[in-house]
Design a protein that fits this description.
The chain contains four helices and 21 strands. With about 450 residues, it is mainly β. The protein has two domains: about 300 residues, paralog of FGE (formylglycine-generating enzyme); about 100 residues, no CATH class.
């Protein structure tokens, strides 16, 4: 497989950057889709000096994973949700009441603000939809046998409903969220993503922190050195401070403030006393052991309504354990996704054709015949040699050209490692096999030489 086109944490960010106009969006639409790698390691969870439910502080070991650099923003939510609702997903009415960015904001778009009015059930269903749209295997299921993908309704999922070693997206566990938030500092007990230094309005979006959007969310990644702090109600000197890039050790933004972020875990005030809270890759208490008559899920990071001086618990702290009923949505709650460092077999969702041996159907790619020597015969392309993972990272060798890259999300667009150009496959012409170069619309026939 060629290496001239780097497929890093998410090839999707490259695709969306190139095809923003094609996808009907003039904004930097890949921003919330970038992911950072969190290596296998440990995190010191909790705090000995604040709330009772944060004690005792303890170490947890975690397997490596990827995490969104930014909170999921509205444009990305809508892109995925539109596809999802056309493919059997159902979300609650609350998502239609989301708050966009203000009308006067012109720097990018009112849609580059964190998605909000998302209850916990909507968040996990959206994670599944994001997985399926990109061609990954979803991780949440209605049943413990993991046969029915969770796409609708409100189900109180347990750990048995989750394919933890799947390639798809999910909400972070509370431990994963804290490790990502603290950066690669396993013994650190810092209050904020940057450490324990004094919190002021130039560092995070909290209640009346002084940014232009008070009292509301800021665009994702707003605190990157260009933030404008113009008010001083609760800014604590932030309006007179030279703004800096408030990115944490793993390259993440908005860990502190903006919107609170849903996590997987059920809340139990005494969970940290339980020895199971110290197990590797702990996933929180089980639903059946909860004492609350109305069980709640964890949401971390504080939000634009939080303020440390008026809140004894200081919900902006990393260790704070805020929790909410999973059916409740709010304008100050959103999500940030993670996914495990796992890969699917190539085209794992393809369905065998019952009457013709070795013939398969892939919903985005069509029919193909799989030989005993890896080569496949595709209805439009003829004999091609495939390499890659799932439906999200596919290299195809065309004998008339060389290696082309595509995936479910960007097809019929292909990237050529031969000349570093993007090509669009012509699905509408009367003849098979034609590709059009995106830069100058020149046409090439690398597929089958037949009429449709």
């Amino acid at each position: 497989m060629p290496s001239s086109f780097p497929i890093v944490c998410s090839a999707l960010s490259t695709i969306l950057s190139v095809f923003a106009c094609t996808l009907g969006c003039s904004i930097a639409s890949a921003d919330s889709i970038k992911m950072a790698f969190v290596p296998t390691g440990t995190v010191l969870m909790g705090s000995e000096s604040n709330q009772p439910d944060e004690k005792p502080s303890h170490y947890v070991s975690l397997t490596e994973y990827f995490v969104d650099v930014y909170e999921v923003h509205i444009w990305h939510w809508e892109k995925v949700a539109s596809w999802a609702e056309a493919n059997g997903y159902q979300f609650s009415d609350s998502v239609k009441q989301r708050k966009d960015g203000p009308w006067w904001y012109q720097d990018t778009s009112s849609l580059i603000f964190p998605m909000n009015m998302v209850n916990w059930y909507d968040a996990v269903k959206w994670c599944n939809a994001r997985s399926e749209l990109e061609g990954r295997i979803p991780v949440y299921y209605e049943d413990a046998n993991q046969t029915t993908v969770y796409r609708s309704g409100e189900h109180n999922l347990t750990s048995q409903n989750v394919n933890w070693t799947g390639s798809g997206y999910r909400l972070p566990t509370e431990a994963e969220w804290e490790r990502a938030a603290r950066g690669n500092s396993p013994s650190s007990s810092q209050d904020y993503s940057w450490g324990n230094s004094f919190l002021n309005g130039a560092m995070a979006n909290y209640s009346l922190s002084g940014d232009e959007f008070d009292d509301a969310s800021t665009p994702v990644g707003y605190y990157n050195g260009g933030q404008k702090i113009v008010f001083n109600d609760n800014s604590r000197g932030g309006e007179s401070t030279s703004p800096s890039n408030v990115v944490n050790g793993f390259g993440l933004y908005d860990i502190t403030g903006n919107v609170s972020e849903w996590c997987w875990d059920w809340y139990d005030s005494s969970w940290y006393d339980d020895p199971s809270s110290r197990l590797q890759d702990t996933r929180g208490p089980e639903y059946g052991q909860l004492a609350d008559t109305q069980p709640r899920r964890i949401a971390k990071g504080g939000n634009y309504k939080s303020f440390s001086e008026s809140d004894p618990a200081n919900s902006l702290r990393i260790a704070n354990r805020a929790c909410w009923r999973p059916d409740l949505a709010a304008r100050f709650r959103g999500l940030r996704c993670v996914r495990g460092n796992y890969d699917d077999p190539l085209w794992v969702t393809a369905v065998a054709h019952g009457h013709f041996p070795n013939w398969y159907f892939l919903d985005w790619f069509g029919y193909y015949y799989k030989s005993d020597y890896t080569w496949v015969f595709h209805g439009d392309f003829g004999w091609i040699y495939p390499n890659g993972k799932g439906s999200y990272d596919n290299w195809l060798y065309f004998q008339g050209h060389g290696w082309l890259w595509t995936n479910r999300y960007c097809y019929p667009y292909f990237y050529s490692s031969v000349d570093s150009n993007w090509y669009k496959y012509d699905l509408t012409g009367t003849e098979l096999g034609w590709f059009e170069k995106s830069t100058d619309q020149s046409r090439f026939r690398w597929g089958r030489v037949y009429d449709r």
